[in-house]
Design goal:
The complex is a heterodimer of chains A (about 290) and B (about 230).
Chain A: H1 2-30, H2 37-51, H3 57-80, H4 89-110, E1 115-116, E2 126-129, E3 132-135, H5 136-158, H6 160-170, H7 172-177, H8 182-208, E4 210-211, H9 215-231, H10 236-256, H11 262-276
Antiparallel strand pairs in A: 1-4, 2-3
Chain B: E1 3-12, E2 15-25, E3 30-34, H1 41-48, E4 56-61, E5 64-65, H2 71-77, E6 79-82, H3 94-101, H4 110-120, H5 122-126, H6 137-149, E7 155-159, H7 167-182, E8 186-191, H8 194-200, E9 203-208, E10 211-217, H9 218-223, H10 225-231
Parallel strand pairs in B: 3-8, 3-9, 6-7, 7-8
Antiparallel strand pairs in B: 1-2, 1-4, 4-5, 9-10
The chains are: A mainly alpha (about 290), B alpha/beta (about 230).
Bound molecules: adenosine-5'-triphosphate (ATP) and magnesium ion.
Adenosine-5'-triphosphate binds next to strand 2 and helix 1 of chain B.
Chain lengths: ~290, ~230
């Protein structure tokens, strides 16, 4: 039983990590809390959901990712860039505004119901590992999420443009002096963050087998924010570790303490943690505490 | 002229930091601009590299008006700005910092050029895989200069490279600037350390609260009584 819980925790954690990486990348380059992250990618998830049935699911996922990418590039251009130098409060309010607009768009087009959800690419089943039966879906989710994380880490470390993103996250002016087209790169980072969020959101919906208009905020932005703070804001490693810790905490609390009061317990643990260590486990150098 | 600045006015909001500046830098020469705290030296360099847009006036580089170009376009055109306070990328290694300096280059010789700067600065090679944030101030300055040179600029802008360094390290930094100049790079050097800067420069400008108040050959400025009194502490 414990092994099954552990596998569940790791796969939920890995899915949260995808959500948190996109969120944390945006935080890393601009030091702005992106409270619109979840609601923007939720639109992409719903687009994929609508297309499912009518076409190859992989294609539907790609289109959803493109929608998320384009939406977030637009949000960056018109809601954040004009406020880039106006402190932290204005962009945060702007982000909350975008979040509401996106959620209302979803409500307008798809309504407020909860729909059952299945991408139709994972065969539900289980495998037997030395007498312990483990669900295969969880293993698939874990593998996909980890593969994406490895690709992103390698791209950041070993490609010229990945290194450019790292420069921007340290100092925008100096990055510009290297000849990096910072505005374009920042827009692309926002876009990629949302595209990654769409994949994470879809895997999340697959795990719980439902989709509804609230997935973006409650399960996206808030989880990504918690994971980033837990792990250390502005760092990739922090986002991944924080998301894993969040997945573990949630799964273990609902397995061994109470599934009804899971969120209350997890928040209590979380708050206790940030009081003791407000900078998170692996903060980026020079990052501040939240 | 490689660089011509005509009637440049630069403001921060309502505050005028540079009022009607005109100056020139000739190809192959080392031109220095000296001025004390708050004179507007950094502001001028930021305007030249497109980080801060001037309110009026023109900047002509290599015959092209770059006044309204973005910073990355300006780097592509051949201006490299080594900023005040070095600004190495602290979370990246020495080697990665040098590679970022070559961001605009498309040729295959980047690694070869990095090796060249390692020969110039053996201390950088020893620390090639160390995070740049862990280097000493002098080492960071060597890294910042090498990084700026990695783009193979036609014009190198240096903002107070001697700031905050021990006297011996200052000597070393000026020796290096002199060598870079001897190799043929055109340099525009902004400094408070007037004596050292004028010693290696060809021509010099004096900037005082946003205005150019003097311009002459470096030698003449070194021997001028006014300059001696105000900037050379004699
Ligand atoms: N971001 C800014 N906002 C408002 N005023 C500024 C800003 N940056 C510089 N200034 C002002 O512009 C003037 C020139 O500053 P600048 O930094 O160019 O001087 P500097 O010659 O480089 O001085 P230092 O030797 O101390 O580096 C100063 O009066 C300064 O207070
Ligand atoms: Mg200055």
């Amino acid at each position: 039983m414990f092994l099954q819980h552990l596998i569940n925790a790791l796969s939920v954690g890995a899915v949260y990590a995808l959500l948190a990486i996109g969120y944390n990348m945006v935080y890393g380059v601009l030091e702005k809390l992106n409270f619109a992250h979840g609601d923007v990618y939720a639109v992409g998830c719903f687009v994929t959901f609508s297309l499912l049935g009518g076409m190859n699911p992989i294609l539907a996922i790609l289109i959803g990712c493109c929608v998320g990418f384009i939406l977030n590039v637009g949000v960056e251009r018109f809601a954040y860039r004009p406020l880039r130098n106006s402190g932290r409060v204005a962009p945060t309010i702007s982000a909350v505004g975008i979040a509401y607009i996106m959620r209302n768009v979803i409500q307008l087009i798809w309504g407020a119901e909860t729909f059952s959800f299945d991408l139709g690419i994972f065969k539900a089943g289980s495998i037997d590992v030395g007498g312990v039966v483990i669900g295969t879906l969880q293993i698939y989710l874990f593998i996909i999420a980890v593969a994406l994380m490895v690709i992103i880490s390698l791209a950041l470390k070993y490609t010229k443009w990945g290194q450019g993103i790292i420069c921007i996250s340290q100092n925008i002016e100096t990055a510009a002096l290297m000849g990096i087209p910072v505005n374009r790169v920042i827009a692309i980072v926002y876009g990629l963050g949302a595209a990654l969020g769409v994949i994470g959101g879809l895997l999340f919906c697959q795990y719980y087998q439902f989709i509804f208009m609230g997935i973006g905020f409650a399960y996206g932005t808030m989880k990504a924010w918690m994971a980033s703070i837990w792990g250390g804001i502005g760092s990739l490693k922090g986002a991944i570790v924080g998301a894993m810790v969040l997945g573990l905490a949630e799964t273990m609390v609902s397995a061994y303490i109470s599934s009804t009061y899971r969120d209350a317990f997890v928040w209590a643990i979380f708050i206790a943690f940030i009081i003791i260590r407000p900078q998170g486990m692996f903060p980026a150098q020079g990052a501040e505490k939240i | 002229m490689l660089l011509e600045v005509e009637n440049l006015v630069v403001k921060y909001g309502e505050i005028t930091a540079l009022s009607n500046i005109s100056l020139q830098a000739e190809e192959g020469q080392l031109t220095t601009l000296i001025g004390s705290n708050g004179a507007g030296k950094t502001t001028l360099l930021k305007a030249l590299s497109g980080l801060h847009k001037p309110a009026s006036g023109r900047i002509i580089f290599n015959g092209k008006d770059i006044t309204n170009c973005s910073t990355d376009q300006i780097v592509h055109l051949g201006i490299s700005h080594c900023p005040e306070g070095r600004r190495v990328f602290p979370r990246q290694t020495v080697h990665e910092n040098l590679r970022m300096g070559a961001f605009v280059r498309k040729d295959k010789d980047v690694e070869k050029d990095i090796e060249k700067y390692y020969r110039w600065f053996p201390r950088l090679e020893e620390r090639r895989n160390q995070k740049a944030g862990l280097l000493s101030g002098g080492e960071q300055q060597m890294l910042a200069i090498s990084r700026a040179l990695m783009s193979k600029p036609k014009l190198l802008l240096l903002d107070e490279p001697s700031m905050g360094l021990a006297p011996l390290v200052v000597e070393e930094v000026f020796k290096i600037i002199d060598e870079v100049h001897a190799e043929g790079t055109t340099i525009f050097l902004v400094e408070q350390n007037a004596r050292q800067a004028l010693k290696i420069a060809d021509t010099g400008y004096i900037l005082e609260v946003g205005e150019i108040i003097g311009h002459d050959s470096a030698e003449a400025l070194l021997n001028s009584e006014d300059v001696k009194k105000a900037y050379l502490g004699a």
